[in-house]
Amino acid sequence: MAKTLKIWNGRGHGKYIKGYIYVAAYSKKQAAELISTACDTYITATEITDYYSEGSWSNSMSDIIPTEPCVYATDKYYATDKPIRIL
After folding, report:
1. Which of 14, 44, 68, 71 is the most buried (most CB within 10 A)?
2. Count of domains forming the chain
3. Which domain holds residue 13?
């Protein structure tokens, strides 16, 4: 049975604290690990549960369909530019 990527979005962490984070991963644990690596900080799967919206990229990511685990970010909360892939 093939694994399915899940998606989340939430406020930034670490060096992207003033922006938003978009993550695709196979589990909350993997999402937390990817965000921790990409943002030079440490977050847990519990923080993914408590502070991230599961199942939604948001409108700014509507044309991006993840095919592998990845992290995208904006550098400010109300950025008009497309999020960039950081991992």
Report:
1. 71
2. 1
3. 6-85
Residue 42: Cβ within 10 Å count: 13
With beta carbons less than 8 A apart as the criterion, state whether 61 and 4 touch: no
Residue 1 lies in a domain: no
Strand order in the sheet with 20-25: 52-54, 6-11, 20-25, 70-73, 84-85
The pTM assigned to this predicted structure is 0.91
Give the chain's count of helices (H) and strands (E): 2, 5
pLDDT tens by residue, 26-42: 999 999 999 999 999 99
Q: How far is CA 70 from CA 6, 43, in A?
A: 11, 16
Asked if residue 61 is part of any domain, the answer here is yes
Query: Nearest-CA neighbor of 74 among 66, 83, 65?
Result: 83
